[in-house]
Design a protein that fits this description.
- This protein has 347 residues and is an alpha/beta fold.
- 29% of the residues lie in helices and 20% in strands.
- It is built from 11 helices and 13 strands.
- The chain has helices at 12-22, 42-45, 63-69, 82-91, 108-115, 133-136, 151-166, 195-198, 213-224, 257-267, 321-332, and strands at residues 2-7, 27-33, 72-75, 95-98, 129-130, 145-147, 174-180, 203-204, 230-236, 243-250, 274-276, 294-301, 306-313.
- The strands form 2 sheets. Strands 8-9-7-10-13-12-11 form a 7-stranded mixed sheet.
- α1 packs across α11 (321-332) and α7 packs parallel to α9 (213-224).
- The longest helix is centred in the middle third of the chain and has 16 residues, at 151-166.
């Protein structure tokens, strides 16, 4: 059994990791690290785990002990702390999957510009592997550090990867309109996601300045082999979870929608978690919330020569914990859907 620990276990993504790993056939849950709840039972913090984790107490961060108890560690923390933690764990030959943004960007300058701080583990950037399994299709052999993609970028990249390969759209002005449930803001107290602020409300935020922009542009550029510029506007939905991204792309030539759909079907032929919906059907958050699935569809607006792609994912699962476990499965040679196939959206 693989001994797996979680740093940041009491955050929303951390708790989802716990839920998935408890049912994973190849995993033994080791240490649950939390700065805020040291010594407290995990089942007391999240009563849904009563009867299963009553005696499992949260620990303070001690990387030496963590390394001794773990074969692999998930880091589910805000940007910054993972740099030091990952460096110390990797030095002890422990595999690391970081759910934050510390190892997603290849450029130190981009990290400094968008995150406003120096990177303290630059030497690890060349080792980190950024991986959306359905796109990058990497085997991850001999890999020690995986940079788990961001939630918004996952919804966007899954929607656009087949089109980037076709090279039929203008990559100099991609317009992305994304909406997310409030769990994307994390579990910490924040007036902006207070119930009275968000209920029966809908708003844009961080227009033209969201930190996921360089990640999206970096990965789209690698897919099509040229510089990609995106206009990305995120919005906050009065929902607990889920992301819906609507993406607009100007065509460089006349295309046939059936040809594009066939390209999508071929691209995701072996992708069990990505579904191209029947022609004309619109993806809905409720049909993926609680699962590791991505539903998407592509539409042709012939009147203005534009493609519109719509995708939906659960931000905490395919956008975070679910994809992280998917990457762990590939990294460790398990079945890719281990621990994930039972996750299903409700009715």
């Amino acid at each position: 059994m693989l001994k797996v620990s979680i740093v940041g276990a009491t955050g929303y993504s951390g708790a989802e990791l716990v839920r998935i790993l408890l049912e994973h056939p190849e995993v033994e849950l080791a240490d649950l690290v939390s700065k805020s709840y040291v010594g407290e039972s995990f089942a007391k913090i999240y009563p849904v785990f009563r009867g299963r984790l009553d005696d499992k107490k949260c620990k303070a961060l001690d990387t030496a002990e963590l390394a001794k108890n773990s074969d692999l560690v998930f880091i589910a923390l805000p940007t910054g702390p993972a740099q030091k933690i990952a460096a110390e764990l990797l030095a002890e030959d422990v595999k690391v999957i970081d759910l934050g943004a510390d190892f997603r960007l290849e450029s130190v300058e981009d990290y400094r510009k968008w995150y406003g701080s120096q990177h303290t583990a630059e030497h690890l950037l060349d080792q980190a592997i950024y991986n959306i399994p359905e796109i990058h299709k990497k085997r991850l052999e001999d890999v020690q550090l995986v940079a788990n993609p961001g939630c918004y970028p996952t919804s966007v990249l899954l929607a656009l990867a087949p089109l980037m390969k076709m090279q039929i759209v203008d990559t100099s002005s991609v317009i992305i309109d994304s909406k997310s449930g409030v769990s994307g803001a994390g579990r910490g107290m924040n007036l902006g996601v207070h119930f009275c602020q968000q209920d029966e409300n809908f708003k844009a935020y961080k227009v033209a300045s969201h930190r996921h922009i360089p990640e999206i542009e970096q990965e789209l550029g690698k897919l099509c082999g040229e510089k990609v510029l995106v206009s990305f506007t995120p919005h906050l939905l009065p929902l607990k979870r889920g992301i819906l991204s609507t993406i607009y792309l100007d065509l460089l030539e006349q295309v046939d929608l059936s040809q594009i759909r066939q390209n999508f079907l071929e691209y995701y032929r072996d992708a069990q978690f990505v579904q191209l919906l029947p022609e004309g059907e619109l993806p809905e958050i409720k049909n993926v919330a609680g699962s590791n699935d991505c539903h998407l569809n592509v539409f042709l607006d012939e009147r203005v020569g534009r493609l519109v792609v719509v995708s939906v994912i659960d931000n905490l699962l395919k956008g975070a914990a679910g994809q992280a476990v998917q990457n762990m499965n590939i990294l460790c040679g398990f079945e890719e859907n281990a621990g994930l196939s039972g996750l299903r959206a409700g009715v």
